[in-house]
């Protein structure tokens, strides 16, 4: 039996806005006594929920499934994101893709399988459009440089046989109410979610089959037969474990010096009044991704179950290898986001941000996931490389299929990857990465 003390528990800066604006539900109890389970999933984000749902489809009904989440569901990064489920590669510079179409087509196919899986969950658990909608995606430019990014990307889409439409400045105004954007590019395959509502609805939909525990961080892992997971108030004995904790897989002692921990930040306005909505104009619900990858993501949501009409704005990325973001990053994000908001929505002068927050992503230098069987009957479904709503769903499905089936069509494509590569030593890594990101953010100019 090997013993691993968990070195760090998740700390997410600021409130979980998307979770705060929906009606609170009863939630789930925490582990308060010793229990046993055939399968334990650690982590209740995209990856953990997808693993839980796929296990529930694959296992006979007498095999028990438990999910342990350190915090409340929807309060971690899974419920803190901008809610874009993206099927196409994110980077808009088509030079990156030259000669690499096969790889991209495989990724797109896998991404769409993940979005279909999320859509079928949304349908099965009765989620309204405000929580999951197959909206497609619009990437928009505010500068000539941004337009060049869109045009370069469109060439790559043509090479891959993907349909798209350009949107004029007037059309962008009609969608967003803002004259900030001068060109857009729309594709059909993506989806938009209310991330915290989606996570909670999935858990509620699965509660008859999966036993969920919130506020139950795993603080020690003893691998053996059975494995024993220690939480502050009880132990869980498990035959099989799926670790779905994204970057915190490192806190379990796995993948040392191989994972990059990036934080990104967001702000959400207070509810807009009827007169402010009229001054804004545009459509009721929309989302815009920036033409420059270091630019600003913006969403407008309409009133869903009392949550209000609001704008959400995201930018800034910082590398924090300690897995915690300092207060200075939150202050930088606030200044940047107020500036970006003012540039886009001059008609909403005086509208304050009600929530400001940040959250963790996990990347690897070679963009590979931290995936596979780590020890006997312990699997990792971690390191989503940014696009975690889709990649997390995918790795959760794949971990469940690997653990139960051993092989599947999805695994044949998904397993075509190497391990995350080794990182350069500190302090060069953090200094270099943060300086590069600052430089790229500065280069993004008005796109920010
Ligand atoms: C502001 C922001 C905007 C973003 N926008 C997008 C976007 O538009 N589209 C997109 O695809 N991605 C986006 N992301 C990234 C996305 O949110 C993540 O990649 C995704 O949440 C990863 O999913 P996951 O399930 O792998 O990990 P997580 O969502 O991080 O879930 C892991 C869970 O494990 C739990 N955990 C950790 N340690 C323990 C422990 N010891 N015991 C028990 N539980 C533990 C954590 O509390 C957490 O809930 C964004 C992120 C942020 C912060």
Q: What is the topology?
A:
Elements: E1 2-5, H1 17-20, E2 35-42, H2 46-58, E3 65-68, E4 84-85, H3 101-124, E5 132-133, E6 137-141, H4 144-160, E7 165-167, H5 169-176, E8 183-187, E9 191-193, H6 195-206, E10 210-213, E11 220-223, E12 227-231, E13 234-243, E14 260-269, H7 274-280, E15 286-290, E16 297-301, E17 310-319, H8 327-344, E18 353-363, E19 370-375, E20 378-382, H9 388-404, H10 409-414, H11 428-444
Keywords: Oxidoreductase
Protein name: Gamma-glutamylputrescine oxidoreductase
Pfam families: DAO
In the predicted model, the low-confidence regions spanning at least 5 consecutive residues are: 92-99
CATH class of the domain at 2-79 and 196-258 and 366-428: Alpha Beta
Helix content: 25-40%
Globular, elongated, flat, extended or rod-shaped: what is the shape? globular
The CATH topology label of the domain at 2-79 and 196-258 and 366-428 is FAD/NAD(P)-binding domain
Instruction: List all distinct small molecules, including ions and cofactors, that are bound in this structure.
Output: flavin-adenine dinucleotide
Mean pLDDT: 94
Largest sheet: 9 strands, mixed
Structural class: alpha+beta
Radius of gyration: 21 Å
β-strand percent reads: 15-25%
State the fourth-level CATH superfamily of the domain at 2-79 and 196-258 and 366-428: FAD/NAD(P)-binding domain
Number of helices: 11
């Amino acid at each position: 039996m090997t013993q691993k003390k968990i070195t760090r528990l998740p700390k997410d800066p600021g409130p979980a806005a998307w979770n705060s604006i929906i009606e609170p539900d009863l939630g789930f109890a925490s582990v308060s006594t010793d229990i046993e389970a055939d399968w334990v999933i650690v982590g209740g984000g995209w990856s953990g929920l997808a693993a839980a749902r796929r296990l529930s489809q694959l296992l006979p009904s007498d095999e028990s499934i438990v999910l342990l989440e350190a915090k409340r569901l929807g309060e971690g990064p899974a419920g803190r994101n901008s809610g874009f489920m993206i099927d196409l590669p994110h980077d808009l510079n088509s030079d990156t893709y030259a000669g690499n179409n096969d790889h991209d087509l495989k990724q797109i196919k896998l991404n769409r399988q993940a979005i279909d899986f999320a859509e079928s969950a949304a349908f099965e658990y009765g989620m309204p459009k405000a929580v999951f909608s197959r909206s497609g995606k619009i990437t928009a430019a505010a500068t000539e440089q941004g337009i060049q990014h869109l045009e370069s990307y469109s060439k790559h889409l043509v090479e891959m046989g993907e349909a798209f439409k350009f949107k004029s400045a007037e059309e962008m105004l009609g969608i967003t109410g803002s004259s900030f954007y001068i060109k857009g590019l729309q594709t059909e395959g993506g989806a938009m979610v209310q991330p915290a509502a989606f996570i909670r609805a999935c858990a509620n939909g699965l509660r008859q089959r999966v036993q969920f525990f919130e506020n139950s961080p795993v603080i020690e892992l003893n691998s053996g037969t059975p494995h024993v997971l220690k939480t502050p108030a009880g132990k869980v004995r498990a035959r099989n474990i799926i670790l779905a904790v994204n970057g915190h897989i490192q806190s379990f002692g796995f993948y040392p010096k191989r994972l990059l921990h990036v934080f990104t930040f967001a702000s959400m306005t207070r509810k807009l009044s009827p007169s402010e909505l009229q001054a804004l104009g545009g459509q009721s619900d929309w989302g815009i991704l920036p033409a420059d990858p270091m630019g600003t993501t913006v969403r407008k949501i309409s009133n869903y179950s009392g949550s209000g009409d609001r704008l959400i704005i995201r930018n800034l990325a910082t590398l924090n290898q300690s897995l915690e973001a300092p207060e200075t990053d939150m202050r930088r994000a606030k200044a940047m986001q107020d500036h970006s908001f003012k540039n886009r929505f001059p008609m909403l002068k005086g509208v304050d941000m009600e929530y400001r927050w940040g959250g963790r992503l996990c990347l690897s230098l070679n963009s590979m996931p931290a995936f596979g069987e780590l020890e006997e009957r312990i699997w990792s479904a971690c390191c989503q490389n940014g696009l975690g709503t889709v990649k997390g769903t995918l790795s959760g499905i794949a971990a469940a299929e690997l653990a139960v089936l051993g092989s599947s069509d999805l695994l044949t494509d998904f397993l075509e990857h190497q391990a995350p590569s080794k990182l350069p030593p500190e302090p060069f890594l953090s200094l270099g990465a943060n300086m590069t990101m600052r430089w790229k953010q500065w280069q993004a100019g008005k796109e920010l």
